[in-house]
Amino acid sequence: MRQLHELLWYLSEALTLQAALPIHDALKLSLEETERLTHLSPESLLELDVATHRADINALLLRTSELVRAETHRQQKGPKGRQKTYGRGADLIGAKLKGADLRAANLRGAYLIAADLSGADLRVADLIGADFRDANLNGADLTGSIFLTQSQLNAAKGNANTKLPPSLTRPSHWSTSGA
Q: Model confidence at 94, in pLDDT bands (50, 70, 90)?
């Protein structure tokens, strides 16, 4: 059930993204189907192949990410090649990414455990499945990041200067000062 609710979160977010308009019909159908699955009996849920359902939806979410990030790349000004690209599941454990320009980066499934992302620009970055355990997000800009969840934020460290998407809340264990 937790996985189905996570998919509902992602699909709902995807439907708010203007750049994903070309696939809104498919996203809506997937949202409706996932919602229907949450109403199954406990016995039926046990028989449900959640992995297959998740894989089908992941293809849509990946397409959503590509559309949104491509739109951002078209709008960005300045020198080309300044942005780093990371593959799915990139090992960035303990990485020193302080102040990094990670706008519209694909950080799906990245291991950012104990990474220093203080002051990093993560706007419109795809963060689905990224592991932020003990990551330093002090002063980072996560506004407009896509597929970020509350549990990811809860696993990280941040402060009053960390900018968050409006749908998420600042964890209570984060510093209330900007330092």
A: very high
Which tops the pLDDT comparison, 177 or 46?
Answer: 46
How far apart, in Å, are the Cα atoms of 9 and each of 73, 128, 143?
25, 11, 17
For the residues of 62-91, what is the DSSP string, one character each?
HHHHHHHHHHHHHH--S-TT-S----TT-B
**Paired strand residues for 129:** none
Cβ contacts of residue 138 below 8 Å, gap of 6+? 118, 119, 157, 158, 159, 161, 162, 175
Residue in the block written with tokens 């696939």: 23
CA distances from 14 to 29, 66, 87, 91, 165 (A): 12, 12, 21, 26, 14
Alpha-carbon gap, residue 161 to 177, rounded angstroms: 8
Cβ-based neighbours of 45, under 8 Å, separated by 6 or more: 1, 37
